[in-house]
């Protein structure tokens, strides 16, 4: 058997069959051990040393001295304790982060519920006492400034206790894409259809009421990044990662559109939502598929990220990662103008519903307003964001609403590019937003939330998100429908789902 620590300190360790010479360095642990044994008069076989012997699995297994085994054991015990302390600390920090996120949500936007939990009321100071303390420290100008700040803070707090103004319920799911969905758009008035653009290299046309896929376009060789219906004809415009945009025939079978899904199909869709996210209706029936475009629009050297029709649809605009936007003739497919000026890749393009105007967004933190009403087009540059501008769209009131990765959404006057009319702060990056004809701004976020605001920046509602409804991954795009059907807002995301929502004022419910 290996000798006890006192014997081994002489530099030798003996066994039955072999002897091992181990260099020895005196440590504080050894000194304490020797002093304990000398005071108690113990030997390695007495109780004070039994805990060393107990860790030996076999007296002749290996040649590591017992004192080294005990020291290794103590070291591993210390490491285990440190890991336990780090784990406990991380759990506590995560709880603090979650609590701070919830508090930020309440303070910045209001909860949209009737009231907050009683414990949360203590988080807010008495605004009267606070205003009194601040007014005592400065002049009249400082008093006015402080008063405005307090009013703004108070209004945010009070908004948390207001009754909800909008009723938001999920009505439909459109399931079938095999990968993330970049964009959703709504058909023209009188046609209850939507279209989606997906990373799975396809675009699809869906019936709003039945949830069926009526047509699948597979003409692109890359991700389909955007889709738009023609304003008056059965055509669709798509932009793709294959550096092209396509115009294709979007005629659908309306008899198939009116056919409602059976109860078995609905059950299959619900089951697939919890597993793969791929709908069963598409698997039971072969989809009508279109592979050939009516017109292929070339001219970009990079990914075409978005495209839209100008009023009248005689011309269209594309936005690309090659830092340019192209103005095309729809009939010939020829490039009329190349719009240059952005310093980085473009992210979005949107056109005015009446005038020959378009706005392009870019990663250079700006968006540009292009005016084609004159033979020599003009451009205005809007600089108000600090990170990528993900989208900018026109409103019916001739305003522009822009969204950005800097977690803000800004409302701009068309004739004033210096400063925004309103700024909406968020806790997550905002993606491709949409504005309804009544001025309700729907904002999709990276954190799976969708929020509704008016053009003055006042929060109206947050769409519900639970395990049974709402998106499970980033929400990429939203679109409003003006027909007044069962769904009037649609959203899509990287969970491969398109959701149809009913958004109504509470007074109309």
Could you provide a short overview of the structure?
This protein is of the alpha+beta class.
Strand and helix map with partners:
Blueprint: H1 5-8, E1 12-14, E2 19-21, H2 28-40, H3 50-53, H4 66-109, H5 127-135, H6 140-159, E3 166-175, E4 181-186, E5 193-198, E6 203-207, E7 213-217, E8 224-229, E9 235-240, E10 245-249, H7 254-258, H8 263-273, H9 281-284, E11 289-290, E12 295-297, E13 304-309, E14 315-320, E15 325-329, E16 335-339, E17 346-351, E18 357-362, E19 366-371, E20 378-383, E21 389-394, E22 399-404, E23 408-413, E24 422-425, E25 434-435, E26 440-444, E27 450-454, E28 459-462, E29 475-480, E30 489-493, E31 497-505
Parallel strand pairs: 7-11
Antiparallel strand pairs: 1-2, 3-31, 4-5, 5-6, 6-7, 8-9, 9-10, 10-12, 13-14, 14-15, 15-16, 17-18, 18-19, 19-20, 21-22, 22-23, 23-24, 25-26, 26-27, 27-28, 29-30, 30-31
